[in-house]
Amino acid sequence: MKQSRRIALVLIFSAALIATGALILKDHCPASGFAFSRERRELHRLKNRTAIPQPADFDNTVTLQKMLQAGDEHTRWSATRAAKVEGYVVSLAKGPIELSNCYVPCNRDIHIHVALRPDAPPTEQVVLEITPRMQEWARQQGRDWSEESLRSAMLSHWCSFEGWLLYDSPHAGESENNAPGRAGNWRATAWEIHPITDFAIKGVK
To answer: How far apart are CA 114 and CA 91, in angstroms?
Structure first.
């Protein structure tokens, strides 16, 4: 009986520690997240940018059509630039728990898959992401960027998006542009707009 009580107390104490740690990290996760290499820390910092792009930051050559263009794309654009694209929102959902967000379950990116037509397969879809930091920024501006609100407003609609360009290199091998014809490809390109810093609903085109 004493052994069972001791185990229960240890489990309760461990759960309390984990919950407390998650609450602290929710508001104090560094921009570099959790990372084990300089390259991954830098990638996380790019993902977690909160600066709003200014007019001079935008690369006006970027379009959804060009993001879908086949061929070597590693140096196609620069992650120091921003972009504006338009397309159909094919799907929208919370992303996985990630090291870039300190592995906190309630801090998850929102993945928005955009294509040129509403019935496009995954290999013709571009991934755009809203980060927890930009959700909080929007909340402070009086805007609701929650998953539920965005799904209701965007899904199956033609929308415009703007934000920072990001080459999400860990997913390059799962994208059609980099691994053409590979079984299991779930995206067209490793280039993203991540984070999204603004968007507009254009309606059903």
So the answer is: 7
At residue 40, what is the residue type? R
pLDDT in tens, the chain (205 residues): 556 666 545 455 444 444 444 444 446 799 999 998 999 999 999 999 999 999 999 999 999 999 999 988 999 999 999 999 999 999 999 999 999 999 999 999 999 999 999 999 999 999 999 999 999 999 999 999 999 999 999 999 999 999 999 999 999 999 999 999 999 999 999 999 999 999 999 877 6
The per-residue DSSP string of 124-180 comes to G-EEEEE-HHHHHHHHHTT----HHHHHHHHTTSEEEEEEEEEE-GGGGGGBTTTST
State the pTM of this model: 0.86
Amino acid at 12: I
CATH architecture, domain defined by 38-203: Beta Barrel (2.40)
Asked whether 190 and 176 are in contact (CB, 8 A), the reply is no
193 φ, ψ (degrees, to nearest 5): -100, 115
Residue 82 has φ and ψ, to the nearest 5°, of: -110, 170
Domain boundaries, the chain: 1-30, 38-203
Q: What b/e string do you get for 29-55 counting C-beta neighbours within 10 Å, with b at 16 or more? A: beebbbbeeeebbebbebbbbeeebee
